[in-house]
Amino acid sequence: MKKLLSLFLAIAMAVSLAACGAAGQDSSPPSQSGAVSQQMPETPDTGEETSPPEAESAGILVAYFSWADNAVLADDVDAVTSPSVVPPGNVQQLAGWVQEETGGDLFAIRVTDPYPSDWDACLERANEERGNDARPELTERVENLEQYGTVFLGYPNWWYGVPMALLTFLEENDLSGKDVYLFCSHGTGGLARSVEIITEAAPEANISESIFDCYEEEAASSEADVKAWVNALGFEGGETMENTQTERQIAVQSDRGTVVYQLNGSAAADALLAQLPLTVEVEDYSTNEKIFYPPQALDTTDVPLAEGGAGVLAYYAPWGDVVMFYDSFGANGSLYELGEVVSGEELISGMSGTVTVEAAQ
Ligand SMILES: Cc1cc2nc3c(=O)[nH]c(=O)nc-3n(C[C@H](O)[C@H](O)[C@H](O)COP(=O)(O)O)c2cc1C
User: Fold this and answer.
1) Are 230 and 102 in contact (CB under 8 A)?
2) Does the C-beta of 264 come closer than 6 Å to ligand 1?
3) How would residue 76 be classed by pLDDT, with cut points 50, 70 and 90?
4) What is the third-level CATH fold of 249-359?
């Protein structure tokens, strides 16, 4: 059965070049090239409501789907007849290298009802789902999606397209306004219609034409290729080279020196940035905080609560003060996280008097 289905897939799908590598449309099978739509979404008008906060968020998400972590592994699973079901899955491996190179947050797309680990049975169910235009239920959504401005999205080619769970993911997690980089592992069918399907499902996402795709048998040996692709996009070692790490950073300058914070992608951090530059008085509070009051209250909608210890920058909503922690603290339902210290942490406890707060250069 597997051989029959494989043969069917192989014949039905246009044969693409097997080599791994970054590709644009030219890596799609010739029969698909006219159909693949890679048009970038129109830049929205600059009306207030069309400038989503996501576009300014610095975080990187690496989301992926792989059969291996979406299957119930039977004890007797045959690694020869069902090779890619044995962890790590092909896309899972690619995602791991993207994560290592970008320092992003890894998110495995998982269905609540896993697929069979038998190749034929999995093909059959995937094909049924495709025929029914199904949206398999997922175990979870991405938390605080607004903190991510960049999303690397990985998937295997399933039935000339994408696993239907990828569409559930795109419907539950709105990637509008975000920079999206696709990576895919596949058999002889190449990318097939996958890019077109994803573009239709996320029409407002900025989907890059630079796509990494990789033949299934070469996935395990493509670490260098994946990392080279990520670097060529401008990411290296957990940072965006072109942003040189100063995007969304603020400098708090006192006569003792400068403390630099990396702000998160939250609405509260946006509201603080919008008020800069500031000249404010730093005050002592308790035995672990230095605080200052921005002139205007910060928007705490969907802002994560502060956790951690020394070095955290937070906002205490009832008083409207920004808190620079230099020692551990307890969580509080009104204490929201704005960011974390990047340098100068040792100066915080000695800070006093008038300071300036401005965007880091
Ligand atoms: C249900 C199913 C359908 C597939 N359909 C195709 C296909 O249409 N074209 C293709 O080239 N490969 C197809 N493949 C092969 C996978 O794309 C390929 O093995 C990929 O490397 C698997 O990645 P993973 O291990 O992360 O799941 C299919 C695999 C499965 C399990």
Assistant:
1) yes
2) no
3) low
4) Cyclophilin (2.40.100)
